[in-house]
Hints:
Blueprint: E1 2-4, H1 7-19, E2 24-29, H2 35-47, E3 50-55, H3 75-84, E4 89-91, H4 95-98, H5 117-120, H6 124-139, E5 143-147, H7 151-163, E6 169-173, H8 193-199, H9 201-214, H10 219-233, E7 237-245, E8 259-267, E9 270-278
Parallel strand pairs: 1-4, 2-3, 2-5, 3-4, 5-6
Antiparallel strand pairs: 7-8, 8-9
Residues 28-30, 58, 61, 128, 131-132, 150, 153 line the site of pantoate.
Amino acid sequence: MQTIHDRAALTAILNSFRAAGENVALVPTMGALHDGHLALVADAKMRAARVVVSIFVNPKQFGPNEDFDAYPRRAEADSAKLIAAGVDVLWMPPVDEMYPAGFATNIRVEGLPDRLCGAARPGHFDGVATVVAKLFNQVRPDIAIFGEKDWQQLAIIRRMAADLDLGVEVVGFPTQREEDGLALSSRNAYLTPDERAAAVALPRALEQAARAVEGGEEISAALAAVPSALLKAGFSSVDYVELVAADTLIPLEKLDRPGRLLAAARIGKARLIDNLAVLPN
Ligand code: PAF
């Protein structure tokens, strides 16, 4: 694996892949890699001759009171995992390579970021869209793979790639879970053992609500059970629980198309998100 920190070297190695007729898959990450990321890498390896993983903790997607400084950074351990996974290139741009002095462009997808996580994290998805557009331009991948755990992020990136003719196939990969059902996330590292035990209430409550809606229960009643279950389990607050159309993220009043049940809730120092498919019969 080649670890690269400057764009000229990145372009040179990518040109050599293209000259050999090899297609390229990109897995963008912020590091602190867990088995969920490694599943994205394994999928990338099946889809492309060459796999590039980026690690960049993107300051533009963190709000002033968020965990940018505390976000786990584990370059050495991450690198060892990626070598073992057979990655070809690790792209780790420094902040001033990504955002040189004078950088003034913001990419905003309209509509999709307004609600759900976007409501609690103003500007977050602009930061995501801007950095992902830059990563796409830097790597020019044929395929880019993102986890479905960040469902709203995936919808926004898909919209941006289509709207801006970025020529990248955006692939969503199913959420990877611990044995008890908790979605793998770098932010699970913030949980104390007691909070970790309580956190499983999130996937469980979503699963129960999703099956209830599929079984014909009224949507508002099924969703209302989720915050009470989370607060009872030890979550301190619930940002949202919503059933939306899987593609447009518009709230569903009845289950007449593929839906997605999404939630975000806080426990200890962590804000956890999760989502599940809810399908009409
Ligand atoms: O999902 C993430 O890890 C980040 O939001 C991404 C897509 C790498 C952009 O910084």
